[in-house]
Amino acid sequence: MKVRIALFGALRDADARGFIELDAPDVCTIATLRDLLREHLREHAPHISANLVQRSAFASDDEILHNHRTLPDNGKLAILPPVSGG
Amino acid sequence: MTDLYTAVVDISEAALDPATALDFVSDPRFGGIDIFIGKVREHNLGRIVTGISYDLFEPLALRTFEAIDARARAEIGGPMKLYIAHAKGDLRIGDVAVIVAAGTPHRDEAFRACRLAIEAVKHEAPIWKQEHYIDGDSAWSEGCSLCDEQREAEHAATLRGDVHDHSH
Question: B79: exposed, middle or buried (C-beta count within 10 Å: 0-12, 13-18, 19+)?
């Protein structure tokens, strides 16, 4: 399935469009998606550190999706770097 | 819900207003009101700051504010009004970045609810701060990971005294 990952904070530097699109297996965990994203960034945005991706969380509009979760049906996610509000 | 107000406010459209927050949490039942106002300050970690840009993932930020409210209500265990608003966009020195206000029957619950809520907003809400410095440089602030495995690893490191004391 086609997955669209919205970018925020320091990860906006990974793609000026503000999102990244990846092809993922139809049944895919967040952990697998994280690996796919890391590979994508290594090729297309090598200035983004792997550590930043490791420390980032994936989320739907409603909740954080931890590593064991599977992708939402609509293929829409956000990746959230460490937060620094307030 | 009339006992909770949450908002993400685009600074190009309106400023955050403490008077509005105080008005919202005021109630004949409540003798105690605590308000926290976070403003943009002119220095951080030894560097002179000229402004801050805030990036937010709005739908999840608002849901996080609602979850924080539920937790504060469980903690307080009585009537309460809570106001949580955060700015987004480009802020200058002195601009209000965040307001949390709690109204409760007595001061103790108001202080506790307000403290709980602002700490949770800072550590759990999907909000990112980019500082702009006087030399023209900019940097995204180091933050708190929302990833479970990372949080546990970083918590363990904090207990060992290695990193990240949550003073931000």
Answer: middle
